[in-house]
């Protein structure tokens, strides 16, 4: 019984770690050269932190099925706007 619980726990841990490694990440222009582009996304918001912009870009990129994104345009102030290129 203990053995079955250990195997089940290890299986669950491997699934969770795979999900964490499959997250979308930001890349530099040099890193993007080796990736296949798949379109662009834009996000905008009023009165929030720049970290919120990155979180929104990552969430939107993941929803589109991208593995990475690169910010190609960003404006900030009372409101901010960012555009990112998506990569497979």
From TrEMBL:
<dbReference type="InterPro" id="IPR010854">
    <property type="entry name" value="YdgH/BhsA/McbA-like_dom"/>
</dbReference>
<dbReference type="Pfam" id="PF07338">
    <property type="entry name" value="YdgH_BhsA-like"/>
</dbReference>
<dbReference type="InterPro" id="IPR036275">
    <property type="entry name" value="YdgH-like_sf"/>
</dbReference>
<feature type="signal peptide">
    <location>
        <begin position="1"/>
        <end position="22"/>
    </location>
</feature>
<dbReference type="InterPro" id="IPR047775">
    <property type="entry name" value="Stress_YhcN-like"/>
</dbReference>
<feature type="domain" description="YdgH/BhsA/McbA-like">
    <location>
        <begin position="35"/>
        <end position="88"/>
    </location>
</feature>
<dbReference type="InterPro" id="IPR025543">
    <property type="entry name" value="Dodecin-like"/>
</dbReference>
<keyword id="KW-0732">Signal</keyword>
<protein>
    <submittedName>
        <fullName>Membrane protein</fullName>
    </submittedName>
</protein>
<dbReference type="InterPro" id="IPR051096">
    <property type="entry name" value="BhsA/McbA_stress_biofilm_assoc"/>
</dbReference>
């Amino acid at each position: 019984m203990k053995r079955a619980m250990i195997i089940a726990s290890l299986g669950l841990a491997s699934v969770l770690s795979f999900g964490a490694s499959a997250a979308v990440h930001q890349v530099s222009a040099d890193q993007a050269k080796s990736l296949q582009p798949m379109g662009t996304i834009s996000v905008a918001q009023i009165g929030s932190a720049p970290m919120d912009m990155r979180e929104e870009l990552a969430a939107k990129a993941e929803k589109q099925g991208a593995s990475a994104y690169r910010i190609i345009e960003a404006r900030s102030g009372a409101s901010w706007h960012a555009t990112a290129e998506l990569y497979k």
